[in-house]
Amino acid sequence: MSVRADAETLRQIPIFAECEPVHLQLLAFASERQHFVSGEIIISQGKKAKSAFLLLSGYADIQQSLGSQNQSIAKAEPGALLGEVAMIGKSTYAITALALGSVSTARLDHALFLRVASEYPEFGQSVFRVLARRLENSMLDFESVRGKFLRTKPFLDL
Question: Is the model's pLDDT at 157 over the cut of 80?
Fold first, then answer.
């Protein structure tokens, strides 16, 4: 894929939708290409996030640990970005992603993201504006569920 094609793929990802094409081209150009074989772990739940991975080709099985078991919860396809929020926040990955067959990715590391955000503040502002809206929507969803929970009968009254 070309840098422009990779940048356009990044633009399709909600957190980068408002970013200038030149900033996304810079990210795409500076990202490292990585290849994974079937069954290889791309990201691992609970591990400290240093990078996000843009799927360029192939598919990934998205899993989440429930107790001691990993359960498949989704399938990621080309164009998906894995671990972006954890990478930006330098937290831990919330999911595990396993390669299904041969997978090619563009690895965006935390240092690269911060460098682009510091050299081009409008890039960082765009990303953080989208993340802030996402958080606000999550909080509204949480309040809605909380309201429903508070209106239910106590278990002892059933």
Answer: no
